[in-house]
Amino acid sequence: MRAPKSQRNRSKKGIHPRADLLLRLQLESNPEALCLVRAVVQCAAGVVRFQESDSRAIVRSVDEALANVIRHAYKGRGDLPIALTCRRLWSGTDAATPCGLEVVVTDSGVSANPKKLQGRSLDDLRPGGLGLHFMKQSMDVVEFSRKNGKNLLRMVKYLAPSTPEEKPEGE
Amino acid sequence: MEISARQSEGGVIFDLTGDIDLAHSPAMRKVLLVEIKEKHTLKVYLNLKNVRYIDSSGIASLVEGLKASRDQGSRLILYALSASVREVMELSRLQKIFEIYENEEQALSS
Questions:
Q1: What is the pLDDT of residue B102?
Q2: pTM confidence score
Q3: What ipTM describes this predicted complex?
Q4: Pick from B53, B56, B87: which is nearest to A130 by CB?
Q5: Is CATH 3.90.79.10 the right assignment for the domain spanning A18-118+129-158?
Q6: What is the chain B residue with the closest CA to A68?
Q7: B88/A138 touch (CB, cutoff 8 Å), yes or no
Q8: Is there a contact between A53 and A120 (Cβ–Cβ < 8 Å)?
Q9: Closest residue by Cα to residue A127 from B51, B75, B32
């Protein structure tokens, strides 16, 4: 279940009253490691108390993100570094209530072609090109950026039913 | 992931167990394409009851198998999808493209 549009729009500004680190992983771009990452990310989603279907959505998105790094940024090489962090986001209105999970994936591979980040039409029956579609369908925020020679992918999933975030300062 | 094969009337059943992800989808793809394109098996059944997870590379392998089966005039039949696999099929809008059945009995009698 996706968070309301108003909440997703606000989140694009990347402003959250409070976030605490749940998980920081350093791994190599080895496909055999993906099952381990899925297991720990599922646990992280459980800590934030996502429903089962939303936990699966988060796990799927992280898995697809890492698979894209391995296949595209690192061209299939299995020995290059990937970093992953998961942060629990807290509601601004209720300090005791988590409102979502932020996942950031960082790699040092080649930057993605912006055209390929648009995904493809599902009407076209052919293998490939579905990973980005899965991420965008499953998460409330999916943002790509490049900083200091590294690719950053930030994804956020909000708990549903939504807990309104505190308005960013100045609004 | 483990793949084991059983013969059935007019075809072969592959029992898949585990996760079909980037590490393991190439093995499934190879098994499927050999069965369809080289052995020319008319009905290829995939029992997905024990598949906990499938990613986009797994879906891509299934689509490749489906295309090969259409080219060969054979059938690729899926059954016993878990909630996780069914969700991915729906996200891909492929649930109506593939032949999918609830269980083995229904699949074999189709």
A1: 96
A2: 0.85
A3: 0.89
A4: B56
A5: no
A6: B22
A7: no
A8: no
A9: B32
